[in-house]
Amino acid sequence: MSREPAAPLLSARDLTKRYALSAGVFGRGATFAAVDGVSFDVERGETLGLVGESGSGKSTTGRLVVRLEEPTGGNVFFEGQDWLALSGRELARRRRDVQIVFQDPQTSLNPRMTCGAQVSEPLSVQGLARGRDLKERVGSLLAEVGLSADIARRFPAELSGGQRQRVAIARALATRPKFVVCDEPVSSLDVSVAAQVLNLLAELREKSHLSYLFISHDLAVVSRVADRIAVMYLGRIVEEGSAAAIVARPLHPYTAALLSASPETDPARRRPRIALSGEPPSPASPPSGCAFHPRCPIARPRCREETPKLFPTPDGRRVACFFPGELAPGAP
Amino acid sequence: MRDLRVEVPIGGRRVAAVDGVDFDLAAGESLAVVGESGCGKTLLARALLGLAPEGARVSGSISIGGRELVGSSAEEWRRVRGKEIALVFQEPASAFDPVATVGAQIVEAVRAHRKVARSEARRIAIERLREVGFPDPARGMAEYPHRLSGGLKQRAFLAMALASDPAILVADEPTTALDATVAAQVLELLDRLRLGRRLTLLLITHDLGTVATHADRVIVMYAGRVVEEARAVDLFREPRHPYTRALLASLPRLSARTRNAARRFDAIPGVVPDLASRPAGTCSFAPRCPERFDPCDSDEPTLYPAGESIARCFLYDPRLRS
Fold it and tell me: What's the structural domain count of chain A?
């Protein structure tokens, strides 16, 4: 197995996921793309934020990367290895390196299993620990996420939302993964508790040199936790770059609108709102040309006819717009 | 509203989930009630509409236009709702009958409170849909709720709530289920309705960002009580209660500043006390409070004036100032 030392920890290339449309309306065989040619790299120790609204394909992208679903097309490379070619025991073994934390621990945890059993399950399945050692590992994992050892005997329903999410994180970390997909990990939590969980994720990242794919609808949260941000709209990445550059000067008009919709409590820092008309279209019936054009304040005829490709910019970003940077969100 | 208490049964006893709330609402004003889950804000809103859950006991006073409502019969409440006060909430889908058109349901809402002919009710319904920004109101009438997008569904819900021209609109987390760019549109619509109709708005939300741009005054609730009341500008410029300060600090803000400094959020340690085990005889925020001092653990603070605002915190107790 040859491994390029400089290869990113994880690369997605042209990932595509098509689903069948419900039969009857468009006849058999009609499909639509929930994820449509998505490519990105995540380096070791890096956090890539994946931002978008409902129907943008951000969660599907996360599920494809951890192989909860199989893509229709494209590739994923993990540590330079063809991740999609793995199967059977080899895949089962390698899964320990790639984990996922979901939005709602109420549904992602098994209500009939104690928290201790849920955290120990991946360890015993992977054959990483047994007996006394297993018990100790569970105790130290719970401690790592800021929970006391007696949580192990409790059931998810007995815990608060924040505690449940900590258990879900402990479970994801049990096998010492290198890469964790966090899919809206704090969206169901109150702000004060969300802040605690975000701090925990940051600490764990530093301590264990983790890489995250951090999926969220909340650009404010992502701007704080991610090194780089990829903005998705209707199954595609429309802009990608360093978090600092994107927040300071978005190039895609959709990014600019998202930034301006982000709530700001300090009047001195409030940006003028860019009002978008309409709502995100359904992936099942995407508009022609640039998918954003029906809502775009600066759309021209060309945008209706031609689909802009992601192209690199001089400052190291990628953007899919014929008129990048034209719609400025205004100085904060 | 005066000394409103909503007691709910928990484990064989009654606990005050809303514990002595006072506020005034002026015509045309927008008052936000902010707090995290379990603070009592939703129960408060339901009590205001006579919709407190089964088994809950509501006491104190709610008066609208000088008329006392606590103790009203179900029939009296039904008349008040819709006519004087209406409700929209997070999940518009559950407000509609899935098998009737949006138009039929708004027409019915109009006729529930006004003796008008069907054709006149239909004209009013179309007018309401236009008012809430339906692109094609006449066609919108014929749509079924599930066929509408999230944003349009919430607009249709608003149109139905406005069917009989209520004076007060209670909006309980009206944009929480919507995408950011769509939520912004609905909030702007609420602002427009307030101005256009002199509608009084009670906005129930967990989102301080929404409050900052869409409320005149704010009530912050913690563990069933008001801990701070302030004009919105004052609340954000100079939050008085330590809980308000901590809540504001924990809010994720956009940051172009990178790396490690930005990654730390000012979290509030601990958790909101649950209903059954709220501290009694002390400040309920004391266990999590960074500014806690001697009296906080031995006595219960009341609301004290704090600058232009009022706050339930011993920091502002004039007896302790000297």
Answer: 1
Residue A158, chain B, CB below 8 Å: the answer is: no
Closest CA to A127 of A99, A95, A103, A164: A95
Q: Angle at CA B281, nearest 5°, toward B219 and B205?
A: 20
Q: Is residue A164 domain-resident? A: no
CB of A192 within 8 Å of a chain B CB? The answer is: yes
B233: chain A residues, CB-CB within 8 Å: 267
Closest listed residue to residue A254, CA positions, set A277, A222, A221, A287: A277
Distances (CA, A) of A112 to A122, A149, A158: 17, 19, 11
The backbone torsions φ and ψ at residue B125, rounded to the nearest 5 degrees and listed phi first, read: -60, -45
Asked whether the beta carbons of B286 and B296 are under 8 A apart, the reply is yes
List Cβ neighbours of B66 (8 Å cut-off, separation of 6 or more). none
Residues A67-117: tens digit of each pLDDT: 999 999 999 999 999 999 999 999 999 999 999 999 887 788 999 999 999
Query: B119 at the A interface (CB within 8 A)?
Result: no
CATH number of residue A314's parent domain: 3.40.50.300
Name the token pair of B208.
Answer: 């301080």
The reply to whether residue A280 touches residue B179, judged by beta carbons under 8 angstroms, is yes
Distance (Å, rounded) from C-alpha B46 to C-alpha B33? 13
> Cβ contact (<8 Å) for A192 and B250?
yes
> CA nearest A47 in B: which residue?
B259
What is the domain range of residue A32? 10-108+178-193+208-319
Give how far A136 is from chain B: nearest CA, Å. Answer: 25
Asked if residues B54 and B74 have their Cβ atoms less than 8 Å apart, the reply is no
CB contact under 8 A, A191 and B36: yes
Contact A179, B25 (CB under 8 A): no
pLDDT in tens, B92-121: 888 999 999 999 999 999 998 888 999 999
ipTM associated with this complex = 0.85
- Strand, coil or helix: what is A230? strand
Q: Which of A195, A224, A280 faces B255 most closely, judged by CB atoms?
A: A224
In terms of DSSP bridges, do strands B2-10 and A73-78 run parallel, antiparallel, or are they unpaired? unpaired
Window 13-72 of A: residues touching B by CB (8 A cutoff) are 53-54
What would the pLDDT profile of A25-41 be if each residue is shown by its tens digit? 555 678 899 999 999 99
Please report which helix (H) or strand (E) contains residue B306, including its range: strand B304-306
**Residues B179, A54: C-beta atoms closer than 8 Å:** yes
Nearest CA in chain B to A198: B265
B78 touches chain A (CB under 8 A): no
